[in-house]
Amino acid sequence: MTTLRDKSGLLEVTIFVVFALTTKALALQWTPKYAGPVTLLLTLALLTGYLHRQGKTWKHYGLKPLTGLKAKLLVLPQAILVSICFAISVGSVIALANAFEISALLQVSEGVESRFGGVRGNLPNFIMWLGIIWVSAAFGEEMFFRGYLVTRLQEVLPSTRLATVLAVLIPALIFGYGHYDYQGIRGLVMTGMIGIAFGASYLLLKKSLWPIILVHGAMDSIAFTALYLGAD
Predict the structure, then answer these.
(1) Whole-angstrom Cα distance, residue 181 to residue 162?
(2) Please, what is the Cα angle at 229 between 228 and 231, to 5 degrees?
(3) CA gap 17, 11 in Å, rounded
(4) In angstroms, rounded to a whole number, what is the distance separating the alpha carbons of residues 85 and 88?
(5) Across the chain, which distance is largest between two alpha carbons, in Å?
(6) What is the tens place of the pLDDT at every residue in 21-77?
(7) pLDDT digits (tens, 9 = 90+) for 93-131
């Protein structure tokens, strides 16, 4: 690979990633159940202020205005494409785990139950978590991991195919690691693969976050609805 196009940009990305991971590690000692949402929103608030000082907006990082009826209607077929990528990523992990009997990828971590088990049959808790997943997961995670990190890494890395792969892969690995504390190896691998699917979709859709936000929020909502209704 050739040299970096923007060394200061790479430092900027590193600072925000380290800030997000460090604050989460600290928040886990204070409020483990809400550490992810709290630190992600704090990181986004800091990042938004920084971008504003740089004369940039989130439009540059995927939150493009849906101008006109055609743009709005296109979100649905685009979301179908994202859903297919999502299904392939999740299905490949499950198929691999079953084929090679990898127990670490088949068993749901006890941390998931301790964090979300209270949703079962508890309507106020269910509604609260639906709000959290749309604000923090659907919007927040996609804005940071796909919108900011993928776009910024593409800007600072050399203009090569390998660099594009790395711009998708690196945020996906960080995304997976961000779920390791309560989901274990299964969560790291599963969410890492989902991160690759979403990152690739982001580039295929010419850096539009709306279809990915819609799919992310919908999939999490389905999972939490099943949990509320008593599913394991």
Answers:
(1) 30
(2) 95
(3) 10
(4) 5
(5) 56
(6) 999 999 999 999 999 999 999 999 999 999 999 999 999 999 999 999 999 999 999
(7) 999 999 999 999 988 888 898 899 999 999 999 999 999
Beta-carbon count within 10 A of 169 CB: 18
Residue for token digits 């709000």?
131
CA gap 93, 189 in Å, rounded: 8
Written in H, E and C, the secondary structure of the chain is CCCCCCHHHHHHHHHHHHHHHHHHHHHHHHCHHHHHHHHHHHHHHHHHHHHHHCCCCHHHHCCCCCCHHHHHHHHHHHHHHHHHHHHHHHHHHHHHHHHCCCHHHHCCCHHHHHHHHHHCCCHHHHHHHHHHHHHHHHHHHHHHHHHHHHHHHHHHCCCCHHHHHHHHHHHHHHHHHCCHHHHHHHHHHHHHHHHHHHHHHHHHCCCCCHHHHHHHHHHHHHHHHHHHCCCC
Q: Where does residue 12 rank: exposed (0-12), middle (13-18), buried (19+ CB within 10 A)?
A: middle
First to last CA, the chain: 47
Closest CA to 155 of 61, 80, 77: 61
Q: Are 141 and 216 spatial neighbours (Cβ–Cβ below 8 Å)?
A: yes
Q: Are 107 and 186 in contact (CB under 8 A)?
A: yes
* Phi, psi angle pair for 125, to nearest 5°: -65, -40
Angle, CA 83 vertex, CA 81 and CA 88 arms, to 5°: 100
Count of C-beta atoms within a 10 Å radius of residue 30: 9
